[in-house]
Amino acid sequence: MLAETLVSDVLARAVRGGASFAEVYVERWKRRQLRVLNNDVKEATSGLENGAGVRLFYGTEVAYAYTNDLTHEGLLDVTDNLVRVKGQAGKVDPKGRGGLDFRKTASRGLHDPKVPFEEHPKPYRLERLREADAGARVAPEIRQVESYLQEWEQDVLVANSEGAWVEDRRVRTRLYVNAIAQENGAVQTGTAWEGLSVGLELFDRFPPREVGKRAGGQALTNLRARPAPAGTFPVVIGNAFGGVIFHEALGHLLETTSVAKKASVLSDMLGEEIASPAVTYIDDGTTAHAWGSSEFDDEGAPTRRTVLIERGILKSYMVDRWGSLLTGYKVTGSGRRQDYTFAPTSRMRNTFIAAGETPLDQLFAQVEFGLYTKEMRGGQVKPGSGEYNFGVQEAYLIRNGQIAEPVRGAMLVGKGPETIRRVVAVSSDLSTASGMCGSLSGSIPTEVGQPHVLVSAIVVGGEA
Amino acid sequence: MTQEEGRRYVLARAKERGIAAEVLTEMGRELTARSHQRKLEQITQAVRGGIGVRVVVDGRVGYAYSEELSSAALDWMLQEATDNSSLQAEASGFLPKSTAVTRKDMVGDSLRGSLEAKVQMAIGLEGTIREDPRVKQVLFASYAEREWDVAVTSTEGADGSYRRGIAGLMASMVMAEGESRKQGWDDEWATSVATLEPGRTALEFTERTGRLLGAKPLTTGRYRAYIESKAFGSILAAFTPLWNSKNVVERKSPLADRIGETIASSLVTIVDDPTLPEGLAGRPIDAEGTPGRRTVLVDRGVLRSYLTNSETARALGVENTGHAWRSYRGIVWVAPSNFFMAPGAGVTLSEGVIVAEVLGLHAGTNTVTGDFSVQALGLKVEDGRVAYPVENFAIAGNFLSLLKDITAVGNELKWEYGMRMAYGTPMVEVRELSFAGA
């Protein structure tokens, strides 16, 4: 994507200027998005993005610049500017002679798509979205259906002053369906989505009609639902996207982004029991074709499977290069960024609660009165206090151990370290789902997952 | 090629092919200096720009964009946009007839200052934050400036451009007192570097978070709510899609077909004004080159207007308010500029709960129904005074009911900024709101 001599020149110039480490990140995106409302195309758009980020370390100080001027002149200008900011231009370092001998690593194609980005004409995509639309119309009350298809192909090159040269391609496809149900003036919504690191074979794994049907069914359920109760209750959290609760309440607290500055309530706790013994929590960047997978992270480190918590004991944090420098923990291949406009920070990849042993019915049997949150929306956390929230998209009351009537409009709030100690039981039906996670290095694809989980008490924000 | 050459090239190619086209270019600049332990920790300097095209072929609309300005990339872009347009069944698309508007430089000297002085602002911000003994950690303290240069030209006569910039201070810190821990996450933006005050801003940040330390649980119930301007600003921002005419046309807004109806308390007046001199998101033209002007959306409780662009104005048979919004990477949409609720006579505390901060709006609000349920932090009010901080609760309701239940409006506006949009709100008193807690 960029000539070796140019990359080498940039890195050499930085090191000559006194940087203890220099990195060039180059990327090129092709994107397509299609939005269909009630069977008609509302927007069709395509795009090309390309740019580069130059990151320099001066000890633990970081200087970052990005540009989409990828000429020799443009990139050297950006680098010189950074060096000048540090006021150390002219300082000669013998390592900075130039002519770096790169160790080139290419990806092995672990997540390569079966259907290449350019395959199938555009009307093929429209037909698939129309199937989703048809699938969502499960009843006459479904008045509106909107479906989106997003396709990305991202080529990445990361090279650094240690001689690393890594090239990786990430292809991702996501289908999103939103249904609106209406009856006697009441309006409710349902959503369903699926995303993987694949091409259009996503439709083979998840037939659009089925995804649509889930969205429609949910809108209908919410139309019949009463407002959720308010108060503190036992909660059974659904599998798959239910994992977003631990993504917020636990995952973000284990990123060195916060941990290195002791701005996480879980800093300095390796080896300690921080969660219920029922909890084993894993972040795996290697799962083939998972939404948050890639062969290398955005710093060029190979991704790996990182066991964060084993039966309640904290085993590892998620560590990027800078976090490693600050804490001494080894990098875990967790350096990620939205695109070249962000310096990487430690982030989650595919993070999930491992399957437990409690049969599903016994999970519910333990609850006399509580809430079953079957489908979730997103959430948020403050790592420094552990306070988190997440929105519920589809929920039911639990009465005497049985799933009872649907309720809508609930939000769960709590403090992460408390909630993970209140995990009473974990079922065995592990499943995962795709999401977009926002943090200091932008919005990135991450997968969340879990089996059904019973928590003894969470504040449920409903109608008092 | 330069962006200007790029715009000319695309329009010329479009004309050759007899295609109506509109080209938008954008060049953004960023400077961020982050302090940690009173030293410069990270500095980001950057430029990013690109070109986006909207074409109309036989009434069908298509889009594409590129960050690469080679003729090959621009040819690809025009071809993709044309292909994309062929997917549309609807054949009533058009580009607005427009005229040239004089270029406006809204930045001038407002972001002037040495890099060293700007770095010192970040360090000064962190230094003052750390002077509070309750501050245990500072995740970051930054100075940031953003500048963008936007130009729109079309085969239908649109031709306008402007340059705009803002500067800000932001920080996140962890504060503790006894067992209680709270994390603040704050920002403060201004139209010029000179008006930023790191010392005063630092004290505001620590005061805002420090007063929540030692919080007690809140008993579930219905309370009178005093929603502070910052919290109300984020709620209002989350519900601006209600006034987005795109959602009205697509039947995704609860305000559809309600022009002229009373939708809020008579104390509520909501305005969008891209010409507001003190506005953080002012602009002379919108993304279609339509000149910006003040639009009253709600006048003393009565719904008067939506935010429109050329397409939605035609679909609804109303005036184009000049609220087309687009980044070169996206499609033409509708968005506010300086969106605010007019200040009122003031709020007097009696009994209830002050809502100081709301969290989880992206997951806890539904703009199709107006329903919300979000995490909140606050202060219990008893006998007309702040009694103690409260935590671990959520507030829930419907945004339109909330607007109807407003019983008093504060006399001072505070502005929130994000994504080139600004939201100004006073504190509001709400008769009764549902609180879920212990």
Question: What does the model show?
Answer:
The complex is a heterodimer of chains A (464) and B (438). With 464 residues, chain A is α+β, with helices and mostly antiparallel strands. Chain A folds into 3 domains: 4-30 and 46-106, no CATH class; 122-225, PmbA/TldD fold, CATH 3.30.2290.10; 231-461, no CATH class. Chain A is 20% helix and 42% strand. In chain A, strands 1, 2, 3, 4, 5, 6 and 7 form a 7-stranded mixed beta sheet that branches. Chain A has a 6-stranded mixed beta sheet with strand order 12-11-10-15-22-21. In chain A, strands 9-16-17-19-23 form a 5-stranded mixed beta barrel. In chain A, helix 1 runs parallel beside helix 2 (72-85). The mean pLDDT of chain A is 94. By secondary structure, chain B is of the alpha+beta class. Chain B contains 9 helices and 22 strands. In chain B, helix 1 (3-16) packs across helix 2 and helix 3 runs parallel beside helix 4 (198-210). The mean pLDDT of chain B is 96. Chains A and B meet through strand 2, strand 3, helix 2, helix 3 and strand 5 of A and strand 2, strand 3, helix 2, strand 5 and strand 6 of B. Strand 3 of chain A pairs parallel with strand 2 (39-57) of chain B.
Provide keyphrases for this structure.
heterodimer, A: 464 residues, alpha+beta, PmbA/TldD fold, 3 domains, seven-stranded mixed beta sheet, six-stranded mixed beta sheet, B: 438 residues, 2 domains, 22 strands, 21% helix
Q: Tally the helices of chain A: what do you get?
A: 10
Structural class of chain A: alpha+beta
Strand content of chain A: 35-45%
Assembly status: heterodimer
